[in-house]
Amino acid sequence: MVSRIIPVETFDLVIFGGTGDLARRKILPGLFKRFCDGQMPVGSRIIAAARSELDLSGFQDFVVEAVEDALGTPDADQISGFVDTLDYVTIDALGEEGWADLAAKLPAFDKVRAFYFSVGPSLFEALAERLHKHGLVDTETRIVVEKPFGRDQESAKALNATLRRHFDESQIYRIDHYLGKETVQNLMAVRFGNMLFEPLWNSQYIDHIQISVAEDVGVGGRGAYYDKSGAMRDMVQNHLMQLLCLTAMEPPSFFEPDAVRDEKLKVIRALTPVEPHHIVRGQYTDSSDEVTYREDVGDPRSRTESYIALKCHVSNWRWAGTPFYLRTGKRLKARDSEINVVFKQTPHSIFGPEAGEHHNELRIQLQPDEGINLRVTIKEPGPGGMRLMDVPLDMSFAEALGEDADTPDAYERLIMDVIRGNQTLFMRDDEVEAAWAWTDPIIQGWEARHDVPKPYESFSNGPTDADLLIERDGRNWREIGR
Ligand code: NAP
């Protein structure tokens, strides 16, 4: 198969926080891959900006190392071509140092121009103001902002208002890297590009939907940040809700940014408030040689959750009566993320009770490998009569697509969408605010009750209460790491 790279226009991408962890692990290696695929037209530049006093060769060495760490030893010609596109400016977002230097590097608006705010949100306002003050933006300039986008609806609204004082909504790209995953977009292709699924995609045929994002790592070095956030703010309000939206939304009339985002917003607004007994918070405890959550964050009395499981409902005609079960956690059994669409049983089994219960299931796998897998019921082979079993119809991208399965990392794809000016996979202001409006009362409820998360053993499936949450309904979680 021939890989199809869609060309983009020549661009200048300025990365504020260009020496940070995200730039080193994701943004810069991702851009290198785009360069290797010929998606950085001649004349395009990547300008990193941070307070560290680095000269250009120091920054180039930093990038070579980042690429090696992320992707292994690169081809000598390719990496030398890539480092030629780099530039660096020492700048303080909160001061005046470096801004004239940056302006000198960007004398004319003759290319696509984007500023990636890969810094903490407390710097967004200062950056936006200084970009304007120094004449670095025009009406076509784009800004990319990282999560966390607020910590509740009020702060998200304030952040949106700040950004919108300086930029039009069409210039603001709020990144959620889950939306850049190949499989997440494939979810839309599977739903809206096939006749097979959409007629069945409703509460008449779907028993329930599970969305699981399990990580095997703990909070590690991010403890200080994470302890002020927790799984609800860090994962559910953004990544899991976005996955839920794409799974539950109505077909947009066209695959176009506002049409898709309008449909996602309708899903968020149709979510009913979660009953307190439909939610389980957890916190990882000991295993033989690992530290506990509280040790990780350095607070022996921390009440922040590293795990959430909840049941919710999308109250509209399509989904009335079909529960959505969401769960996410750290230090679980495996790194394993999946959306499971579990269909109902056939209304009548012609094979009798001994055939047992069988459900078709569509599994959309996001991590560690991406792929889609449909479980169908067939006859168990052999002479043992009409016994039934479930087998997968597999579509692992790696196997099915061969060399084309080397799909771009989510960040690569999303950065290229910024350059193309396509906001479909970025969150709009009203979506973010609506998502907070749904999670805020849940978090406020815990705070008011001084709720203490349930302990769960490291590298397990999570707290046993989370099992009870779904077992009470006569269902089971799919096994993590299966
Ligand atoms: P980080 O490792 O702490 O890096 C922060 C960067 O910002 C550094 O390059 C730092 O360089 C620069 N910086 C700090 N203060 C500055 C100032 N006053 N003026 C100019 N530059 C300044 O943070 P990160 O992990 O890369 O995260 C960056 C953003 O992405 C955060 O909003 C984070 O929440 C978000 N994010 C990160 C990840 C991840 O995996 N790391 C994932 C999702 C979202 P100097 O100190 O040299 O100035």
Hey, roughly how much beta strand do the residues contain? Answer: 15-25%
Number of strands: 15
- Spans of at least 5 consecutive residues whose pLDDT stays below 50 are none
Q: CATH homologous superfamily of the largest domain - what is it? A: Dihydrodipicolinate Reductase, domain 2
Number of contiguous helices:
15
Order of strands in the sheet with most strands: 14-13-12-11-7-10-9-8-15
* Quaternary organisation of the protein chains: single chain
CATH architecture of the largest domain: 2-Layer Sandwich
Structural class: alpha/beta
- Helical fraction: 25-40%
Give the ordered list of helices and strands.
EHEHHEHEHEHEHEHHHEHEEEEEEHHHEH
**What does the main sheet amount to?**
9 strands, mixed
Describe this structure in words.
InterPro entries: G6P_DH, G6P_DH_AS, G6P_DH_C, G6P_DH_NAD-bd, NAD(P)-bd_dom_sf. It comes from Cognatishimia coralii. Residues 14-186 form the Glucose-6-phosphate dehydrogenase NAD-binding domain. It is an enzyme of class 1 (oxidoreductase). The protein is of the alpha/beta class and 482 residues long. The chain folds into two domains: 11-146, NAD(P)-binding Rossmann-like Domain (Rossmann fold, 3-Layer(aba) Sandwich), CATH 3.40.50; 179-409 and 427-471, Dihydrodipicolinate Reductase, domain 2, CATH 3.30.360.10. It is 35% helix and 19% strand. It has 15 helices and 15 strands. The strands form two sheets. It has a nine-stranded mixed sheet with strand order 14-13-12-11-7-10-9-8-15, with helices on both faces. Strands 3-2-1-4-5-6 form a six-stranded parallel sheet. Strand 5 (142-145), helix 6 and strand 6 (172-174) form a beta-alpha-beta unit. The two termini are 31 Å apart. NADP nicotinamide-adenine-dinucleotide phosphate (NAP) is lined by residues 16-23, 50-52, 91-94, 118-120, 123, 146-148. NADP nicotinamide-adenine-dinucleotide phosphate (NAP) binds next to helix 1.
